[in-house]
Design brief:
Length: about 260
Amino acid sequence: MVRLAKQEKAATPEPPLTNPAAHRIVTAARRHFFAHGFRSVTMDDLAEELGMSKKTLYASFAGKTDLLRAVLLDKFHSIETDLERIASASSTDVLDSLHQLLACVQRHAEEIQPPFVRDIRREAPEMFQLVQSRRRDVIQRYFGKILDEGRRAGIFRKDISTRLMIEILLGATEAIMNPPKMAELGLTPKTGFLTIITVVLEGVLTEKGRSRERQGEEETRRRGDKERTRRQGDKEETGRQGDKERGDREKRSRGNARASARGDV
């Protein structure tokens, strides 16, 4: 199997945070930075929210740039941990593994909102180089593996090498998934990357792969229909139960009223 990550020296994964104070700081900063951007969040704001002295905060991170770098590395560590768990699971269904990878990427991309992309473009463009480097390594390592397995299984075309597929995916990702172009096209990290990978994968699927994909989509629709039917049934049953309980309460209320009128209570 071709190990694409060897074509270019992979970024060395940094160890996860072990310092409890630093971990708390990064967790809070990650929540604020990705949701609202980091321009308006000050180190003082974080110290106050965490009930932590500024001395303790600055002992862990010299400034916001260092903290931003730690947040990005923590994000990639989370992504790689989840992808590694999927990749290491023994599955003979290539498309199922691919869908799990895409669902994982989608879940992680949802955390990053437009204000963060805006701020990294305006305030810290140098940090985007870190994003590009780690993103390239993730694509080579995990999507390279699944494309290799798919070619052997006849799901992906064998007349296009795995290396070329990955280079096409990387080229499109780097050309489009950068802050200026995303702002120009009105894309979010989630919509941008999923659109790119869908277009690329559609182009390399064999007829066998397309047939399997259609079967998988049909099965997903059937499961969705069953789940919606079940939820509707539960809702109707809940409504019937509620109607019965209201009727019982009204009967008791009328009985109490009659008893009160007779002077029994």
